[in-house]
Amino acid sequence: MAIYLTELDDTLTFPSPYEALYEPNGLLAFGGDLNPSRILAGYQQGIFPWYGPGEPILWWSPSPRAVFDPITFKPSKSLIKFQRKHQYKVTLNNATKQVIQLCSSTRPAEETWLNESMQASYIELAKRGYCHSVEVWHDNELVGGLYGISVGQLFCGESMFSLKDNASKVALWYLCKHLASNYGQLIDCQVMNPHLESLGAYEMKRDDFIQKLLSLRNKKTDLGTFRPQTLQDSVS
30 in helix, strand or coil? Predict the structure, then answer.
C-alpha cells in the first residue's frame, strides 16, 4: 500500500491524525515550520514534531501511545527511600529554559532532535504559559528535570534529563503528584520504551488517546504560568 504524507503549507492546519493509520510509526506530515502556534495546534490534535539532522520537519501521531495516569502513579519503594534520604528540592516553572537546554546538551549530538530552533519554540511556548518544567535541585544545583506542553488537563511530556541518581524519576513523581492535585488527568509520553515502561507507563490505542485528548483539551488545570512554585520537599 502506498503511503502519502501531507506537506504542510503556511496555514496552521494539520491532516487528521487518523491519516497516520497506515504508517507503522505514525508519521503524518512533513514541512511547515516551528512557529510556536503551529506546534501548539499540533499538540491540541495529538500531533508533535520530531526530526533528525538533515531531515525536514516531521510530524507524528503514533499508535499505540505511551501514557501515565498521574492519579494512580506510584513511585517505587526504592525511590521513596532514596528521596527520604537525599531530600532533592523540586520546583515548578522555575528554570524552564535551563531544563530545555539541558535536555538537549546532556544527550550525544547524534541522538538529540532538540536543536536550537526547537529549543527556541518551546521556550517561547513557556513564555505564553503552555510549556512547563519540573526542576530537581541538589545543593542549589539543577540536577534533573523534565518539560512538556499542557493541553487542558493533558500534559504532553517532551523530554527529561538527569545529572544525579534518580533525579528525572523524582521529577516525574512530583509532576504526577502536582497534576493529581490540580485536575491533571493524563500524561502523554508519545512512544513507549523500556525506561518508561519500568516507571509504570502503559500503552493506549490512537483512537482511545485522541478521544481522551478531545475530552480533556478544553478543561482547566493549574500548572502555573512561569510562576515559581516549590512543591513538597519531603515525603510524607
Answer: strand
